[in-house]
Amino acid sequence: MGVMMDRLLDAVVAAQNPSVLGLDTRIEYFPERFAEAYDLTTLDGAAEAIADFNQILIDAVCDIVPAVKVQAAYYEMYGVAGMEAFFDTLDYAKRKGMAVIADVKRNDIGSTATAYSAAYLGRTALSGAEAQAFPADFVTVNPYLGTDGIEPFVRDCATYKKGVFVLVKTSNPSGREIQDLDTGGCTLYERVGDLVAGWGAGLIGSRGYSSVGAVVGATCPEEGAALRKRLPTVCFLLPGYGAQGATAEGLAGCFDEEGLGAVVNASRSLQCAWKRMPGENDFAKATRHVAIAMKRDICTALNEAGRGRWK
Amino acid sequence: MGVMMDRLLDAVVAAQNPSVLGLDTRIEYFPERFAEAYDLTTLDGAAEAIADFNQILIDAVCDIVPAVKVQAAYYEMYGVAGMEAFFDTLDYAKRKGMAVIADVKRNDIGSTATAYSAAYLGRTALSGAEAQAFPADFVTVNPYLGTDGIEPFVRDCATYKKGVFVLVKTSNPSGREIQDLDTGGCTLYERVGDLVAGWGAGLIGSRGYSSVGAVVGATCPEEGAALRKRLPTVCFLLPGYGAQGATAEGLAGCFDEEGLGAVVNASRSLQCAWKRMPGENDFAKATRHVAIAMKRDICTALNEAGRGRWK
Questions:
Q1: What's the ipTM?
Q2: Spatial CA neighbour of B19 closest among B291, B310, B305
């Protein structure tokens, strides 16, 4: 069977593309022609539009982009209807064969972490039955509560062949207030990175990476390259490409010499591609166009940096 | 108007009770007589039962317990239907006049934290309209991303008279792996506590506490007492009383000399009160009985420790 991280990396190799389509969908991202079919004055109408917009973008790129990352905050803000759009988006991407990352950044004490893990990775125990609450292949989690807040996720990764990405070094400016603190010989994020490597030690797949990955901001290229060396079994999810300012050259160091070990998320630049292509009336085509440009940009930078031989 | 933390502490004083009813509802908590009216083999049926069970417990104690804490994980695990039960529970508690803490432990980079804050504290911007996604007075948040992951919540606390509780020192055993690390002269949790005090500096109410509070595990009494001295403007939310093993004596040090500065959550011991009272057929009465015993236990310990004069 292998582990989930193998499946993700196999999909990356098959598509020759380490990109992830981020769906942080906001109603401001809709072209007018699309928006006018919906009642965007209500939570229900906005949520319906978001789910439909996402499906169109998934259809536009699912044959060339191996994974999708769906940011829960932008669905929770539309209430229960938003959570339905969240479910529908995860479910649709999964049915289209993409690896599905539920970007929920959850965490809590062990018993509660067990409930969160059931919600996204495992199964919810019912009376003489069980069910899947939200269909995801990966979740993102926060490490502040230590091992017993992570273990339930790791257990479900083993049982259900799923994966997690633990926040290690985030892409936002003030992440360093906490994460860069010197904790005696190394920073907090390095220490968390070491814990992540340990948590995944039993789930290393045939490509050398475990199903317990790390979120590493693509906006900190030097730290990312150093973490790549420090954590040879930990695959990175790199947010921040595009709108947040990270470049393909900067993130090449987060990949290993074969060109694996990381996937790169872009949200706004893909979702709002139509804004940069005034002549293109079809926003889905614009997203596909920018997705292809992103793949080329990253693969060229990886080839030039000697990180694999990408087509 | 004052700040949200004033409203919470005013309610505590009025009820002469610093307890919080935790609703970490699980179907195993239902007495058979209650459960048999629902189809607990499906997510929808379980979620419906959870919402009803919560309403009965809220009705049972809303005149004597000033606040409720609803743990999102136990709702997310029932999928979209569970999120509807989450909404209904927050909404019902609010309508019953309780202070409502959405225990979601969310956090992310600034733009995404803005969306989370809109979901729970602020308003969701729609096309020429706005709406409230989930009705809460407080949310719990995680500090790992530093100031810009917290600022959106603090902004909404000011605009909408709301509050947050930031994870500082958690009640679980492995919290110390991260939180107790020496970061050069103080531990990480002390440093996070200092940040929390700073984040709330503009939101201090007439009782001397800001609307930016801290989650401090009641399972670590010595650290709690030291934090009380270190952070005189930060109100604590103390989980861990009862089932997690914290005692009233142990948590007295988390209160100030007037007996304020903290609220104490109990979930399982209140929700499953009927299991400890085999003669009582009415589970709501059992919860009320245990809630009164909890109030007496805490107030007695506070009086004995010279932390206010509680009736």
A1: 0.98
A2: B291
